[in-house]
Amino acid sequence: MTVTVYGIPNCDTVKKARKWLDANGVEYVFHDYKKLGADQAKLESWVEEKGWEVLLNKRGTTFRKLDDADKADIDSNKAVTLMAQHNSMIKRPVVENGDTLLVGFKEDQWLEVFS
């Protein structure tokens, strides 16, 4: 089973998550949004599983700089479009591990999944 970590390499949370995976002997493939982009179909499946509210990073600079019209009336479709256009708005990291999808780095949750 391949573990895939999606994120941006200079993100502090992604760095912490990758360091944790390395320290715990978990092999993974890293998908760099800045180089490889974010696949819209994958974003749609993640939103379907976790909800757009979990995946859309509203606290970051990229979201805060959007026009008010772009920030208004967000639903699943609009959130996917925004995340596809501005991959910095995807909460990081997103980790696919078989049937398990993790969003963000929570060590206790990761211990359960990777033990």
Summarize the structure.
The chain is α+β, with helices and mostly antiparallel strands and 115 residues long. The chain contains eight helices and four strands, in the order βαβααααααββα.
Secondary-structure map:
Elements: E1 3-7, H1 12-23, E2 29-32, H2 33-36, H3 40-50, H4 52-55, H5 61-64, H6 68-71, H7 76-85, E3 94-97, E4 100-103, H8 107-114
Parallel strand pairs: 1-2
Antiparallel strand pairs: 1-3, 3-4
Helix pairs in contact: 3-7
What is the overall shape?
globular
Number of strand elements: 4
Tell me the CATH topology. Answer: Glutaredoxin
What's the SSE pattern? Answer: EHEHHHHHHEEH
Count of the separate structural domains: 1
What is the CA–CA distance across the termini?
14 Å
Question: How are the strands of the largest sheet arranged?
Answer: 2-1-3-4
Low confidence ranges: none
Protein described:
The chain is an alpha+beta fold. The chain has a single domain (3-114), classed as 3-Layer(aba) Sandwich (Glutaredoxin), CATH 3.40.30.10. It is built from eight helices and four strands; from the N terminus they run βαβααααααββα. The chain has a four-stranded mixed sheet. Helix 1 (12-23) links the parallel strand 1 and strand 2. It is globular. The mean pLDDT is 95.
List keywords for this structure.
50% helix; Glutaredoxin; 115 residues; alpha+beta; single chain; four-stranded mixed sheet
